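Hi R.,

Here's the chain you asked about this morning:
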Amino acid sequence: MGSQFLELRTSQSLTLTPALQQSLKVLQLSALDLDEEIIKILDENPMLERAEAPPITANLSSSTRLQQDDESNDRSDAAQKISLRDHLFEQLGVIRNLSESESLLVKILIENLDESGWLSSDLEEIVEMVSPFVDEPALATQSALKRLQTFDPCGVGARDLAECLALQLTYWVPERWPDWVGSPELELAHELCREYLPVLATGNTSRLASLLQTDEATVRRIHALLLKLNPRPASQWTTPEADYAIPDVIVRKIKGTWVPMLNEAVMPKLRINTEYAHILAESKRGLHTELNLKVQHAKGLIKSIGQRFDTMLRVAKVVVAHQQLFFEQGWGAVRPLTLREVATELGMHESTISRATTQKFILTPLGTVELKKFFSTVMHTDDGQNTSSTAIQSRITQLIDRENTKKPLSDSQLTFLLGKEGVKVARRTVAKYREGLRIPVAALRKSQADANSIKS
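And the predicted structure, written out as tokens:
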């Protein structure tokens, strides 16, 4: 019979109190989503009331509108559609036997999806973000990503085009076209996605056939299958930002310095219902227990909303201070800036910075943009200076805009031109940036230009 003994272990875990959960939820909501949430709560809690008219639906000044009044109905219709985040959160909510930390990891990943449904942040950054709270953070984050990648829409959570297509080949194609299941062609389609997408982009079916050790007819069938897949799985949830985005922050130039300030038009003014509060104040102790509970919930919501805007403004001040050149020169002047740097400067956690900048918009002289777009990784130049990945993406866009449409620039040529400017970047990185900008490959850009010239 084996011996028995007691063993004490210490481990870290993240426990979310109801108040903290509400605070995090309010922080992550966009301005429009927050207004909708408040409308819902006002219907449920008689102890809460607005101190003035609803800010977004009735009190937006013309300076903060992104569209003319005759387009306001379109924006309202777009806002009423369920967001990708809500769609994914609903699926997460029905999963049983999921620990709090596992659920939190999936939520963090969801918050880091871009409008195409791809994971916009490097997985390593997310691992570092959650490492203080999760045992074996790399393994746990990988596991959470795999779970997210089984959600609808198929392909969500992909980190690049190859992974996006591979996920759809794995989960979506068998449901839609069962004849492909177990076929050699499906295996070849996976191999093509893993290894030979750049070759496919050239249209050289003969070379592809040789690389895949098959015939050109099979390559054309595989290509036809891939064309049925969606490289932007979240496209049906995506409405152009200018149709509905409401700026939370407005930036103005004051004495030569760009300074952010909160957009008061979107700040909800809430208070405890004075009539009910008076009744409770004069009632005997122990009575109206339910109303007292609703008062506490109302106070908690008001506090969370105040914290939301305070956090957003603090984060915006740091971001704007770092990115002063952007407001003068545009995206090409964006400096490298990471969530960790802002979190360290403010004494906050990186996940808080992520929530405070995702779906939070800032009105600038160059348009209304998401705060999160000001974050980018550092890239080095030949002269020892640092530039940002955002600045490189801006330069790629400029080069493509000025290219000869009859001889568009390949990813290799773009890499060469950037190198001549002192920016060392791998071709695969250039391809990733181009895909993120939703710019087609050179061969497709040429085909589109040829088609346009025929039409004209």
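Residues 56-80, 239-243 have pLDDT under 50 and may be disordered.

Let me know if you need anything else.
M.
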